[in-house]
Amino acid sequence: MNSSGSDTQVDDGSPSSFTSKIVRLDLLHTWTTTMSSSAYRETLHVAYSKDNITGYGEGAPIVRYHEDAESARVAAESMGEILLAGDPMHFSKIMEKIFHQFHDEWAAKAAVDISLMDWVGKRLQIPLYAYFGLDPQDAPVTTFSIGIDTPEITRVKVREAKDYPVLKVKVGLDKDEETISAVRSVTPKPLRVDANEGWEDKEEAVRKIKWLETQGVEFVEQPMPSDMLDEMRWVRERVRMPIIADESCQRASNISKLKGIFDGVNIKLDKSGGILEAYRMILIAKSLGMKTMLGCMVSSSVSVTAAAHLSPLVDYADLDGNLLIANDPFKGVQVERGKLVLPRQPGLGLTMK
Ligand code: MG
User: Fold this and answer.
1) Domain coverage including residue 139
2) Which pTM was predicted?
3) Residues 194, 168: contact at Cβ < 8 Å?
4) Are residue 119 and residue 144 in the same domain, yes or no?
5) Ligand 1 center to 246 CA (angstroms)
6) What CATH number is attached to the domain comprising 118?
7) Which end of the chain is more exposed for a tag (fewer CB within 10 A), N or C?
8) pLDDT by residue (tens digit) across 185-210?
């Protein structure tokens, strides 16, 4: 798709373009959660070019929102027409128009938004964290995620993750205690636990959380199905451990009803539809006195780096999606002894491998 139309003052006359493609990302280990088990994932990659500047974007389609890579690609192509018809420096206006016209396809929105904000940072010649007024030194430690597996493979994965000071362990199937015990047989480091809606009985959830409180676990993410908010409030009143919403919290408009039921929210660009909505979510959650966390899906360094640029704002980061794959096409945010190290180059600061 090509277009030469533009009203921006700095237009140098070179044609603008928007392209999209589906990229297959191979996982280092088969990745199992309560939702699925897979050896690879497909994400949507887009590139927006104008005035000899190219911005890159990515979105990971989420099955629970009825998305797949092809539906995301088709939607992104339509969104790209809106992008090409506007002035990219009017990025808020462009994304508002896209959100108004497309009521779903969050991965496509995320990919378009990230490419646009990468372009804007490059145009302004500042890294994206600087656009948001953030200090890269404030970037938090990221957890490294351990998917559900046998005790033997869980121990291997935990040993491989020796450079990460905090681990996030997936539970929610029928062997939670076995999984945590396998992790604990290898390491005493702090753990965060994600049940991915796996506990459907409120008494089971209380029992499991109380046990996790004895296991050096800092918080638990989404213990129960997303719409069981009354049951979650019942659980919240009976445990000490902080509880973070993930599947219960997709967009900014979801957050206020979660206060008092959850202690914080896990924000992901693929759920929110990009950087701008994720930024709004962080500010809203903070204004309500809730903890904030940035998470990700399995994805390349494009999406993970985009989220990392907002990470100086949040309490917790789980930005390891790019560390779980074998064929990352880009290099972006780095991790040094668990701490996120943001690129200093303009925009996202990505380089192609
Ligand atoms: Mg989660």
Assistant:
1) 130-352
2) 0.94
3) yes
4) no
5) 5
6) 3.30.390.10
7) C
8) 999 999 999 999 999 999 999 999 99
